[in-house]
Specification:
The protein has two domains: 50 residues; 162 residues, no CATH class. Helices cover 27% and strands 43% of the residues. It is an alpha+beta fold and 242 residues long. Strands 1, 2, 3, 4, 5, 6, 7, 8, 9, 10 and 11 form an eleven-stranded mixed β-sheet that branches. The chain contains six helices and eleven strands. The protein is flat.
């Protein structure tokens, strides 16, 4: 039986990690250049179109710092026309740091009543439920999502249309953030919701509204008082993945 010395074992481990590093490096470089090609963009457009069940286009795609996939001007077909359901995002950033990190800038969403009490497009129909939702309902709507990712929505608008395409409710300049945090050893999720102007929503209508809260495995909603101000709880919070 052949016995390896300590030095030989160390050398074998070193070579193994060098090979892994080179493979990862090659993969990252390949993705870096592939993201900028037309074929790469076409592939992502096709996958998103299949996922959402509607035709989706992307103006450009690239890898941004610190290695995140960036999609510019993602939109569904025909959204430019007034009274048309669909969505667009000026910029999408998707990365991985322990979990998925998704940032949507200048998201525009319009859902439409199909006449049977449902919202379309089907793939984003749950956005329609937000019209009648309270804060606790938003917690429940995002329950599965928060297990998979951090989410940030910046400077966005949501519109609800009737069967004729007339807007019956809206939320303007919406900001939303959801991320895992911990206070001492207790794992929680931190939420922030900002709405500059709301009409026709179950949430209190008006201007410059802000809600901040925590969720825990046992408690769905813990309100954080003093919106826009630092308080003891907020100062103790740390990003769970940091």
């Amino acid at each position: 039986m052949k016995v390896l010395s300590g030095d030989k074992k160390s050398g074998a481990f070193s070579r193994f990690f060098v090979i892994i590093f080179l493979l990862v490096f090659i993969l990252l470089v390949t993705l870096w250049f592939g993201a900028r090609t037309d074929s790469g963009r076409d592939l992502v457009e096709s996958k998103l179109s299949d996922h959402f069940g509607v035709e989706v286009s992307i103006e450009s795609m690239r890898i941004g710092w610190p290695y995140v996939l960036v999609l510019d001007n993602l939109r569904t077909f025909g959204l430019e026309a007034a009274g048309t359901a669909g969505f667009s995002v000026y910029e999408v950033k998707l990365g991985w740091w322990g979990r998925w990190n998704l940032c949507l800038k200048q998201l525009i969403v319009r859902v439409q009543d199909d006449g049977d009490g449902n919202w379309k497009p089907d793939s984003i129909a749950r956005i329609g439920d937000v019209r009648d939702a309270k804060i606790i309902d938003i917690v429940h709507l995002t329950k599965n999502l928060r297990k998979k990712m951090r989410l940030r929505v910046v400077d966005s608008n949501i519109g609800w249309l009737d069967v004729d395409g007339v807007e019956i409710a809206s939320a303007r300049k919406v900001g939303f953030r959801m991320l895992p945090v911990h206070i001492d050893d207790r794992k929680m999720h931190y939420y922030v919701l900002d709405i500059h102007n709301a009409i026709g929503l179950a949430l209190d209508g008006g201007r410059d509204m802000r809600w901040e809260w925590l969720t825990t495995p046992k408690t769905d909603y813990i309100e954080l008082p003093g919106s826009g101000k630092e308080n003891d709880e907020r100062e103790m919070m740390n990003d769970e993945d940091s």
